[in-house]
Design goal:
Elements: E1 3-11, H1 23-31, E2 35-41, E3 61-65, H2 75-86, E4 90-94, H3 109-112, E5 114-115, E6 148-150, E7 173-175, E8 182-183, E9 190-197, E10 204-211, E11 225-228, H4 236-239, H5 256-259, H6 262-277, H7 285-293
Parallel strand pairs: 1-2, 1-3, 3-4, 4-11
Antiparallel strand pairs: 5-8, 6-7, 9-10, 10-11
Helix pairs in contact: 6-7
Length: 296
């Protein structure tokens, strides 16, 4: 079992992507046996009492949902997160299109693998979403909210994508989103985990990048990390349209997940795999992987 901090980068806001929009993710992690603290920032622009001391608290993992417009972390918080990884803590980050979540750029190598519009720009400058002109690049159209997108990956399949619930033995579908962000394996120890394909241009883009084997300045192994192209892979609305979205979401939703929830059930093995894989090495990850996912 891991002690997980599931954290957004904004304060409580009922009409935004605050932590209440990720309740199904929190429930899934708790059902897998993890101790989950799900929370928003206490205030904006001031050091958060948890994030700013993360490296001194007893969390094993940070799942950071970067739902801000670039100002979601203070310098003190960013430094605490970097130290947390240097101490062996596992970190997941998830952002979205354009500059949404660009506060992640302060997180060292984990920040560098995230590309935005104004900072650390995505070199492809791809704006796939033609239906929402107010959203600029990077945005990759993997499908409508409420639909599935196929997951493209190379052999051998990474442990994060393994499952006993599909004939192929791997996770084949992720929740789709009309404007995913950009992540790349542009630093040492980074590897592309999975790719998607734009429904507009046909272009392949990265869905997730893993960082594994990185060493801190003092020679200690750093915690594993996973950078997701969008937090919509985990949002309630993208798992269950009946949970609704903030009022500013204008895109027409799809129907595939509601019509066939079996593929979403298999996708949830990915969530459980992440929590196992990110668990600090000092707590012996391997047995937990077998007990949660059946991976040999």
């Amino acid at each position: 079992m891991s002690k997980i901090l599931l954290q957004t980068t904004i304060t409580e806001h009922a009409d935004d992507w605050d932590i209440s929009r990720f309740s199904l993710l929190a429930d899934e992690l708790r059902a897998a046996g993890h101790d989950v603290t799900a929370r928003n920032r206490v205030s904006h622009g001031e050091n958060d009492p948890i994030l700013s001391r993360l490296d001194n608290l007893n969390f094993d993992q940070l799942w950071l949902l970067a739902v801000d417009v670039g100002d979601g972390l203070t310098d003190t918080e960013s430094q605490a997160i970097v130290r947390f990884r240097a101490n062996g803590g596992g970190v997941l980050t998830a952002r979205d299109h354009q500059d949404l979540g660009s506060c992640l750029l302060r997180l060292g190598s984990l920040g560098e693998v995230n590309h935005f519009h104004d900072k650390n720009p995505d070199t492809s400058r791809m704006r796939d979403d033609q239906d929402t002109p107010t959203i600029s690049w990077p945005n990759y159209h993997s499908g409508a909210n409420g639909d599935y997108q196929p997951v493209l990956t190379e052999e051998p399949v990474h442990d994060l994508l393994r499952t006993n619930a599909s004939a192929s033995g791997r996770i084949e579908w992720f929740p789709a989103h009309p404007h995913e962000g950009a992540v790349s394996a542009c630093v040492p120890y980074a590897t592309v985990l999975a790719q998607g394909r734009s429904t507009v241009s046909g272009r392949r883009f990265n869905l997730a990048v893993v960082l594994d084997g990185e060493v801190a300045a003092d020679g200690r192994p750093m915690g594993r990390a996973l950078a997701e192209s969008t937090f919509h892979h985990f949002a309630d609305y993208n798992w269950d349209l009946d949970r609704w979205a903030p009022s500013f979401v204008s895109e027409t939703p799809g129907t595939q997940i509601k019509a066939d929830p079996s593929r979403l059930a298999i996708y949830k093995d990915y969530v459980r795999n992440i929590a196992t894989w990110l668990h600090p090495a000092t707590r012996d990850r391997s047995p937990a992987v077998k007990s949660i996912t059946g991976i040999a």
